[in-house]
Specification:
heterodimer; A: mainly alpha; ABC transporter involved in vitamin B12 uptake, BtuC; 14 helices; B: Rossmann fold; 6-stranded mixed sheet; 3-stranded antiparallel sheet; 9 helices; about 25% strand; globular
Chain lengths: ~300, ~270
């Protein structure tokens, strides 16, 4: 048993500070993304979530250029993009997608400029990769306090707005009749998405933070019976994938001769495999198996 | 329709949307307990009138008075249908519960009193058998019941329904009408229900708001659905024929100008060339 453990957890695993930082921030980002992601998928705003994540890369690139806390950069740019998308936004889904696409294009253009400046003026060739695809083991521990604050406020906001968010995702007119300020709620949701993707942008990178936002949520929504359950499940799947990815990436230094695989690749691959595993059987079967006392017992017995 | 005890008073309401006159001096009042059909062809302004009563549309002139003010607290609203992906884990029970406290902040507490209220409401509309089923998986008639329960759980004084009989099979139509009639009596509610076909409502409704060309003729059904009244409303000669307990509204001069509303309404309008 102990030999298995030591084979699984390479020496130094739990004493290395970069690893510890990655475990803490990565886990926290996965929890926030899972919870927020379920609502994002339910509200049909996966594209908006993806756009916010991509646009936030401009903030990350700017932070790199100015030597600021990268999380702060991702966060501010995400907030600006969320406000922009909401102010251009219209009621019809097609128009909403156009507004999202417009902001996405402008943001990525800005990101291209800032990353170019990063690379040319600072001769930091790694900037583009770090901003877009993350470098989890290179996160400064100084990110931790801000990350905690961002994560906590995102979770609190979801807890506070839980019912109005659900009701307006069901049908905006029903929500308005209940006195819910639907547009304000929509803006708040986008802002919380910006918080979530900024957090995962510092871990898996701006582009891949969509995977952390949408992937676990999509899997959880297939399996869970209720929105709250889906949030808990999505958070758990996200954390499992993140920590599993960190472990595999750490171990991979050994079998790749010191280069190692990027953590982001490992995390996103685990999420994708989970998605395939949940998606292949018919949904009804999955739901039956998720109910205790029915399929799950047999499945466990066979496994 | 005694104005003095009106739950809802629509006072000379006109609405123009992007330059087009949708409602023209619509004026009526509903007394407590009225069961009223809002009848008109597609495009006659039924939905706009409902949205104006809800406060979603601001009248260009005139006003809507809800007895006791506090508009939204007193109105229950049932949209024609909601579109929800069956993959979203939102059960009938959750939809009804959100009718009770969906506007509240904070996480819902699993209070026993809340559960009892939701159970009683599901029972009242006959939705107990699909209470645990996902909203996206419900049939048209089932979703209708779920939405009615959602609207009724806060005991509104006025219930507005937008085309609740559209997209239902004949049996569900009759069942929905008698369910609404029963609930209206049980909850002492005033009901305003829009439909393009008045016939299923004939046994239940005691008053009518007939919309055509943005204008309304209102009153007791037998007073409104008469040839001379509807002729004035449509601005052309209209015959009302009662046959086998159904009402047919026949426009003689269909096709010239003002009759566009009638043309689009094959269910209860027969055109004579």
């Amino acid at each position: 048993m102990s030999s298995l453990l030591s084979a699984l957890f390479e020496p130094g695993w739990n004493s290395s500070e970069p690893v510890l930082t990655a475990v803490v921030i990565g886990g926290g980002a996965a929890v926030v993304s899972g919870v927020v992601g379920v609502l994002t998928v339910m509200r049909g705003q996966s594209f908006a979530g993806h756009a916010l994540a991509d646009v936030s890369s401009a903030g990350g690139a700017a932070a790199f250029l100015l030597g600021l806390n990268p999380l702060l950069g991702f966060l501010l740019m995400g907030i600006i993009a969320a406000a922009g998308m909401e102010s251009f936004s219209a009621h019809r889904i097609r128009e909403r997608d156009l507004a999202t696409g417009g902001v996405l294009g402008a943001g990525l253009g800005l990101s291209a400029l800032l990353l170019y400046l990063d690379v040319t003026s600072k001769s930091t060739t790694g900037a583009a990769i770090t901003v877009m695809f993350g470098s989890m083991f290179a996160m400064p521990p100084s990110v931790v306090p801000l990350a905690l604050a961002v994560g906590t406020s995102a979770i609190l906001a979801i807890a506070l707005l839980y019912r109005p968010l659900l009701l307006s995702s069901l049908d905006p007119a029903l929500a308005r009749v209940r006195g819910v300020p639907v547009r304000l709620i929509g803006l708040c949701h986008l802002l919380v998405v910006a918080f979530a993707v900024a957090l995962s942008a510092v871990t898996v990178g701006a582009i891949l933070s969509t995977a952390l936002l949408i992937g676990p949520a999509a899997v959880a929504l297939r399996i869970a019976g209720r929105p709250g359950g889906a949030m808990l499940l999505a958070a758990s799947i996200g954390v499992a994938a993140t920590w599993g990815g960190i472990l595999i990436a750490y171990d991979s230094y050994d079998w790749t001769g010191g280069h190692g695989w990027p953590v982001s690749f490992c995390i996103v691959t685990i999420i994708f495999l989970a998605y395939l595993a949940a998606g292949c059987p018919a949904r009804d079967k999955v739901r039956a198996a998720a109910r205790p006392g029915k399929g799950s017992v047999q499945a466990a017995g066979r496994g | 329709m005694r104005e003095e005890s009106g739950v809802l008073a629509v006072q000379r309401v006109s609405v123009s949307l992007s330059g087009r006159r949708i409602l023209d001096e619509v004026d009526f009042a509903l007394h407590g307990g009225a069961f009223c059909g809002l009848i008109g062809a597609n495009g006659s302004g039924k939905t706009t009138l409902l949205r104006t009563i809800l406060g979603f549309v601001t009248p260009t002139s005139g006003r809507v008075v809800i007895d006791g003010g506090r508009r939204l607290a007193q109105i229950g609203y049932v949209p024609q249908k909601i579109v929800l992906d069956p993959a979203i884990p939102m059960r009938t029970r959750d939809l009804v519960g959100l009718g009770l406290d969906g506007h509240r902040l904070g996480l819902p507490l699993a209070a026993r009193a809340r559960r009892r209220l939701v159970d009683a409401m599901l029972e009242a509309v006959g939705a107990t058998s699909f209470a645990e089923q996902r909203v996206g998986e419900l049939s048209g008639g089932e979703q209708q019941r779920a939405l009615i329960a959602h609207a009724l759980i806060r005991r509104p004084r006025l219930l507005l329904l937008d085309e609740p009989l559209a997209n239902l099979d004949i049996r569900s139509i009759a069942a929905t009408v008698s369910l609404l009639r029963r609930l209206a009596l049980e909850y002492r509610m005033t009901v305003l229900l829009s439909t393009h076909d008045m016939n299923p409502l004939l046994p239940a409704m005691d008053c009518i708001v007939y919309l055509a060309n943005g204008r309304a003729a209102t009153g007791r059904t037998e007073d409104v659905v008469r040839g001379e009244v509807l002729s004035r409303l449509f601005g052309e000669h209209v015959d009302v024929i009662r046959v086998h307990g159904r009402i047919l509204v026949i426009a003689a001069g269909a096709g010239n100008g003002a009759s566009t509303d009638i043309e689009r309404n094959p269910e209860h309008v027969v055109q004579v060339p």
